[in-house]
Amino acid sequence: QQFNALEESKGRTAWAAEFGASSQMSSPPLQTQHPTTVLSDYQRATYMNPIGSYGASLPMTMNFGFSMQPSFDVSDTIDKGKGKAREVDFEAAFAQVAASLPPAQETSGIVEVPDGVTELEDAMKATSLETSTTETDTKQVWDHLQNSDFPPPKDDVANWEAEFNRLMSDQRDELDHDYGATTQNAWENGVGDYSGTNLGEQPLKFDAEGIPILGEYVFESNNKYMDPSIVRSLLDDAKVLLEQNGSLSEAALLLEAAIQRGELGEGGYEAWILLGETRVMDEREEAGMRSLMEGVKRAEAVNAGGAGMLSLAISFTNESYDRASHTMLLRWLRARHPSLEVPESTIQAMATHSSWDTHNRITELFLTLARSQHAEGVLDPDVQIGMGVLFYTNGEYDRAKDCFESALTVRPKDYTLWNRLGSCLSNGNRPEEALGAYQQALQLRPTYTRAIYNVGVACLNIGAHKEAAEHFLSALNLQESASGDTSDQLWYTLRRSLMAMDRPDLAELAKPETKSKIEIFRKEGFDF
Question: What is the pTM of this model?
Fold first, then answer.
């Protein structure tokens, strides 16, 4: 199904039904912060209208930026949270764990008591332990013991009593143990932090409000635009390239050079936010988050009214940093809508409560704002995007879809919104419709790497493995042609598509650490 247009009346009707006074939130499942795709496109490009967030990284990448996660079944699977959870070489990890285990030993089973045995002691003598997989007829043995007139031997009773007393003593020792102190100590030392999933990787640190501590942005070491002979505005060049649907990787190099030359744009934050949004659209989530965090920090310092916050919240969502996403959404609400009353308990809960509780609180704030706007005949696409992200993370894909469709009635040429809509449809088990939404995004921006990735995942989910691989290769080709550097996420997913095609020889070449020349795959008959 192709999404050629959304009728405004349909979008406003769905919006009114969703946010009428009678609408009710469903209870969210318990969520933990861990390192899911998930969604791949939830960013509104503050400086690249109509560029929006990254789509479906909610199991598709939301850039939503949501990146979408494939549901296909191959030997390596992708973590539902784009991920996000970082990718691991599961084969190597499995082999390492398997090698550390002792050899399996056969278990013992009790041979069934023969028919006709009348005395308990005779039965015990006739019973032997053997290595067997046959299950014991428990009921028969129990009935025999119950009906026997002979008590068990005294030695057996003594042994049983000794074992019972030992177990009871162990339980008393456990009851005396201070589990509260142990749990507190474990938590303070990082237990429960699932962000570092690679073997040997240090767990990621978070601040009191759940914001990840990522460190400074790392610039490309070999950037051709750092040539001192270039005197024109590199920031302006990057904007023009983005408006003309040019290479995202090329635009990112221009923006990096502009920042390093001190050309930061409006308020000293514009270039940082634009670089972050561009990196996320180019399927480079971590680099995008680092740049967005720097831009948001600078924007907050000059009271820039929430610039970049919505994009950063979506990027956090894509990496399953739920508390961080909720914190940023609340900051955006308070910056953009200062008249909205926010309970003090909600502000305090952001640093002390679990993500499922803060999810409820932030969602209710967005619903309250949307209802008041609806009563005044106002439809704010950014508010709809924020609600869409919250519904998406809660698995309410139909409600998220309604929000993005409503936003599209105001911004019909926002390709990031089409990508997010595709993520909702894909994760809602409607892959064919999702493909139509992704195609709309790519018609508006053919170089949209994340949307190309999401099309590939949608193809995987319907069993079109070769077509999926060709889309992943196309995205890698876009990245390689600009800077030579490519996304590990794309290589991981390409490898899975090749394994699904029963091509282990090519899958070996698609390991992220190998990063083979993609021309090898063209010679194998892939068209990209």
Answer: 0.66
